[in-house]
Amino acid sequence: MFNSSGLKGSPSFIVRRQAKQNLFSIEKLRNEKYKKKYKTIKRQVRELIFENASLCDQIAQFQESTLLLIDERNFLLKKLQQYHPIPDPEVFRTNVIHNNHHDLLSKKAVLKKRTERTVSDSSTNDSTKMSKHAKKPQAARKKKIVKAIPLDSSGKPIFPISLGDFTVHSLGEVCEKPEYHTEDLIFPVGYCSTRVYGSLKDPEKQCMYTCKVMDGGLGPKFEIVTDTDLDVPIVSTSIDSCHSMLLSLINRCLGMEIVNTKGRGADFFGISHPTIHHLIQASPGVRKCKGYVWTKFEVNPSYEYTPDDEASLSYTALLRSISFSKSHMDPGIKAEPPSGEYHEDHTAALRSLLMS
């Protein structure tokens, strides 16, 4: 019989103990190896994250510089056209085609004089000419692509509908009177949308504008009101003139012509946006609008709209135009001091412009 001390000192016990120590050392070396790999991967991931962030910053700087160059190009092109008007290429192409067509007709007339034809031949030629120059049917409209919006259980859109810079709160009701629609658009009574744009008091500060279509009897009335001057709305019977009045007030507040005052009311209200146009066309009562021509739409859930980057519609583009105009202003030309009307408060100035 062996005692306990003899078992511990036996060769088999020593071999087992050495085997366990070897396994432990191998496991320890393996863990250290994996730990080094983990630290290396972690360091590489951190470096990639920093590199990605720096690349994103560089892309943002390039995009900003590109937009500034585009604004500068448009500014220089506008100045160039003031001194050297450039003919419209479409008009030039139309004139060339007209001249070529006129030369071709004159050659045909000479050939007719040289050849002797009967009266019957001449009558048939006249009939063939009339058939050739017959008015062609109107070309089919291009199909517009719209993005799917969330609907409730009854199939109606869920309000508010946010589409970039503007939000639609109500589509209103379609009126069948001829003045409440055109061949391309419908102006439903009760339509309401909001848009972020430059303030009338300080165009470099943003504010919220509410756009409405109201019942004006024979024709609609269009209203634009800012949240800073709720008592002084801009009202007109034309959607484009309503928007043009707003742009005139923006230029008047800045003291220089920053934005083009040509009205784009349907775009500012959001009525011409393909998604809103599609929803209005699907409203009840549209089939009674006799002067309206239906537009074909195609729903594409993955379609993304490109926002309109015009200073008359986008607050961001307005800020760029203001900063660009200030940076390119001639320092030798001093701005004229404001007249007495400019010293009046903003409410009185707005009322005087609307009454003029």
Automatic annotation (TrEMBL):
SMART domains the record matches: FYRN
Intracellular or extracellular location(s): Nucleus
Keywords annotated in UniProt: Nucleus
Listed InterPro entries: FYrich_C, FYrich_N, INO80E_N, TBRG1
Gene Ontology process terms (BP): regulation of cell cycle
Major place of residence: nucleus
A Pfam family annotated for this UniProt entry: INO80E
Signal sequence bounds: none
PANTHER family recorded: TRANSFORMING GROWTH FACTOR BETA REGULATED GENE 1, TRANSFORMING GROWTH FACTOR BETA REGULATOR 1
Listed name of the protein: INO80 complex subunit E N-terminal domain-containing protein
Organism: Apolygus lucorum (Small green plant bug)
